[in-house]
Amino acid sequence: MARIYKRGRVWYIDIIVKGRRIRRKVSTSKRIAELALKDAEVKIAQNEFGFTRCDITIDKLIEMFLDYSRANHRPGSTNRFRAVLYNFLGYLKAHTNITCVSEITTEIIDKYKVYRRDSWVSPNGRLIKSDEDIKEHTRKGIKANTVNFELKTFNSLFNLAIKWGYLKENPVKGVKRLKVNDTRRLEFLSKEECQIFLKACPADLYPIFFTFLNTGMRKAELENLEWKDVDFQRRKIRICWKEFWQPKTGERDIPISPKLFDILRKLKVENDRSLKSNFVFPHNDGGKIKTKLRVKLIQIAQKAGIEDLTKVHTLRHTFASHLVMKGVDLPTVKKLMGHSVIETTLIYAHLAPDHLADAVDKLEF
Fold first, then answer.
1. 229-280, pLDDT tens digit by residue?
2. For 25-46, what is each residue's pLDDT tens digit?
3. What does the alpha-carbon distance between residue 73 and residue 77 come to, in Å, rounded to a whole number?
4. Crossing angle of helices 106-118/75-95, nearest 10°?
5. Among 171, 172, 126, CA closest to 146
6. Helix/strand number for the chain, H first, E second
7. Which of 122, 146, 195, 241 could make a disulfide contact with 126, Cβ separation 3.0–4.6 Å?
8. 334-365 per-position pLDDT tens digit
9. Is 165 exposed, middle or buried (0-12, 13-18, 19+ CB in 10 A)?
10. Is 13 in the same domain as 109?
11. What residues make up the domain containing 257?
12. Do 20 and 75 belong to one domain?
């Protein structure tokens, strides 16, 4: 079935394709509507109307995509994809009547982009769902980088739908990425702030945060660190692959400073005497640590009077920043931090003006 009809001054096309009824606004011109009808009839005959072998609900596609991600990506990446896609699914349910993948259009993606830029979010980008949760620390609109990451996630989702035969075109294809001009200033602690922060740490958390500051490890790297990864003889920590966890950018060695060596040696003795855990920083039951380190960090920072310290990752920035300010070259910092590309390490380059000047001074023409 295919026909055109008029409502007010506008002509519409009304068609049924594979059991689904589609109505679309065409034009105020009957002639153009008739041409659109003929075009639709040809596409239906050639099975090219834009529908695939079968349709699928968006929530079902998301679950299939997450299963695919669990098999092909790191757990951390899958968790980020899940957060992004569940936010999108929540938006569709609250603001549209869309349930199937074939109903997602470029217009919908663009509207969601506007919605995310106008929504209230927490400091780490979490969507604020109630006006009662809007506090002084919340802000309106997520960062451009976050919007672009979400668009990239949608692009991967719909590309996979095309590969699996549920879509013919990717609705993200025509969506413009945002210009990134809201990057934050690199934040790190001064030497004095490090000392104040560590002094405010409880005895059980001191070794953990001391290790962060003296190794630059990522949070997941510290949480999954086992005693077999600590080489006391060579005085090195090995960030390596495990059956239950994979490092973000491959394996690397981190030298152990003298004071950190003493702390780890003491922890090892205590562990061998009581818990006998495989983990360097275990939970009370000997398993992997369950302490919410970010919450503890914020509490300690408040106690120490250090403002704006809200992320464990700041301690990693602190490690790298002080290395560069001490004159350590960027390729070495890249290796210690486990960056996959030197461009990531270059965010610290401005901290070494004297070091860069000394390099130029070595030229003799």
1. 999 999 999 999 998 898 988 899 999 999 999 999 999 999 999 999 999 9
2. 888 898 888 888 888 777 666 5
3. 6
4. 100
5. 126
6. 14, 8
7. 122
8. 999 999 999 889 889 888 766 566 666 666 66
9. exposed
10. no
11. 191-361
12. no
How many folded domains does the chain comprise? 3
In angstroms, the CA 223 to CA 208 distance is 9
Residue 23, domain member (yes or no): yes
19 sits in the region (left: phi over 0; alpha: psi -120 to 50; else beta) called: left
The pLDDT value given to residue 132: 46
Q: Positive or negative, the Cα torsion across 36, 38, 42, 47?
A: positive
Interatomic CA distance for residues 91 and 102, integer angstroms: 17
Q: Is there a contact between 150 and 88 (Cβ–Cβ < 8 Å)?
A: yes
Quickly list DSSP for 154-194: HHHHHHHHHHHTS-SS-TTTTPPPPP---PPPP----HHHH
Tokens (6 digits) for 162: 């095309």
- Write down how long the chain is: 365
Task: Enter the tokens of residue 301.
Answer: 């920072």
DSSP state of 128: P
Structural Rg of the chain based on CA atoms? 27
Question: pTM of the full predicted structure?
Answer: 0.63
